[in-house]
Design brief:
The complex is a heterodimer of chains A (118) and B (246). Chain A is mainly α and 118 residues long. Chain A is built from 4 helices and no strands.
Chain lengths: 118, 246
């Protein structure tokens, strides 16, 4: 294992620890942390499989493994970001629907209060 | 709510920080139309918009957060649909839409087979438009919409819009949330709804200033173009057979 692979593995383990700690403190929901944990596992797995990485580096025309790992990291981060963009969009839609519903219900409550006070 | 009002037409006014113009807008509507209720949707204003609307006898739906024009209009559509109104005509809070044309829009909704009617500044005038970047946008969207709709829409950015209950059901469930006018037209085509334009002479703003600065206008164009493109991709009629009567 090269020094670079070792550094990547250590960083991956640290990230996994940070994620697990966040889950334990309930500052991140399990379903959202799963994506990051999957990324860490996939990444560490790739770094460990030296032969496969050499083959892949050759396939995409990259001379050295560190460049390939950086490329893969970039692709994974973009994919995860897009995944969260989708989640954010859905949350915004839900939020708008809730704000609309709250406003309508508030008006109905005011109307009922007005009627009952007569 | 809307006690004593017939569930016929609801006049919908979305408003955001319109304390300067809203009062005179409601007054000018009330001078002509006393038989229809007015619903003001206050889109999270920080001024006295709600107070002014209430003091003029309008029903006020206050949004706890600012949602933008489409979100405010859709909230009004939702309430109107739940309250079983037959027609809704949307007017701007700044007094630009002439209340004397409201009856004509309503008659068009009643008598024609159109689900949507639009108060239009430029009926039959292919090259006429507003000044500046807004005019560029109007002309651009006019030509972009032509192949989608199979006919000209001369004022695609007009907010003076009337809908019947059928369209209300669709828009209450799904409505473009920002800058809704143009995307709404593409939605109409997707749902095979018909629309017609009624000639209208708009007025200048009675007070206040437009939120559409040059920067906002540019964002508007980019945003609407993207939303427009996404809606076009969902229109099966665009790729296959178009209903020419629509």
């Amino acid at each position: 294992m090269t020094r670079f692979s070792t550094v990547v593995m250590v960083l991956g383990c640290l990230l996994a620890l940070v994620i697990l700690r966040a889950i334990r403190k309930e500052s991140v929901r399990v379903e959202y942390s799963l994506v990051w944990l999957t990324v860490v596992i996939v990444f560490v797995g790739l770094v460990l499989s030296d032969g496969f990485m050499q083959w892949l580096a050759g396939l995409v025309g990259l001379g050295d493994m560190p460049t390939l790992i950086l490329l893969l990291a970039l692709v994974l981060v973009v994919l995860v970001s897009f995944h969260y963009a989708k989640i954010l969009s859905r949350l915004r839609d839900d939020n708008i629907a809730l704000v609309q519903r709250v406003a309508i219900l508030q008006l109905r409550i005011q109307d009922l209060e007005k009627r009952s006070s007569r | 709510m809307f006690e004593g009002w017939a569930r016929d037409l609801l006049i919908l006014i979305p408003a955001f920080n319109e304390e300067l113009a809203l009062g005179s807008t409601i007054d000018s509507i009330r001078e002509i139309h006393t038989q229809y209720p007015i619903l003001v949707v206050d889109d999270g204003s920080t001024d006295s918009t709600t107070y002014i609307a209430r003091s003029r006898g309008a029903e006020v739906l206050t949004l706890p957060r600012h949602l933008g024009l489409g979100g405010a209009v859709q909230t009004g559509y939702k309430l109107a649909f739940e309250e079983e109104f037959e027609y809704v005509i949307r007017m701007d809070a700044d007094g630009q839409h002439p209340p004397e044309k409201l009856g004509e829009l309503l008659e068009a909704l009643r008598r024609s087979d159109s689900e949507v009617v639009i108060g239009s500044r430029f009926v039959g005038q292919l090259w006429a438009a507003q000044e500046g970047i807004r005019g560029v946008g109007t002309r651009l969207f006019r030509f972009l919409l032509r192949p989608i709709l199979g006919r000209w829409v001369y004022d695609p950015t007009s907010g003076f819009i009337g809908v019947n209950r059928k369209a209300l059901a669709v828009f209450a469930a799904a409505f473009p949330l920002e800058y809704p006018e143009i995307e709404m037209l593409v939605v109409l085509q997707r749902t095979t709804f018909r629309f017609q334009e009624i000639p209208c002479q708009m007025r200048p703003r009675s007070a206040g200033s437009s939120t559409l600065t040059p920067k906002a206008s540019f964002y508007y164009m980019v945003h609407v173009m993207l939303g427009f493109l996404m809606n076009v991709l969902r229109v099966p009629a665009f790729w296959t057979k178009r209903d020419k009567s629509a």
